[in-house]
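Project standup — Tuesday

K.O.: blocked on the structure for the chain from last sprint. Re-posting the sequence here as requested.
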Amino acid sequence: AATTGSKPREPGAGPVLTLVVRSWCSLCDTMREALAPVAARHGARVAEVDLDAHPDWEERFGERVPLLLAGAAPEGAPLAALTLDANALDAWLTAQAVARGRDFR
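H.V.: unblocked you, prediction finished:
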């Protein structure tokens, strides 16, 4: 349950986020767990992409996994690498909602 008292939004109502991971990555598991409640509060759709399935992205992302992108991979804008600041992500998602006229606060 959200600690802010806000209810989760309908999935897909918010922005698209992409989590770039590797299957053997424990930091990826940690970021996935931290990301889930924040994304749910904002109705963000999270797509997960395994970097090992995209060797052409290796030069671009390399060891910076987990990597959270705003938008689709590989062209999305980086929001977090290696660790997730859930409060910063929450603030960014709130700002996106306000900019779209969908204030979720």
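K.O.: great, moving the ticket to review. The longest strand covers residues 16-21. The chain is about 35% helix and 20% strand.
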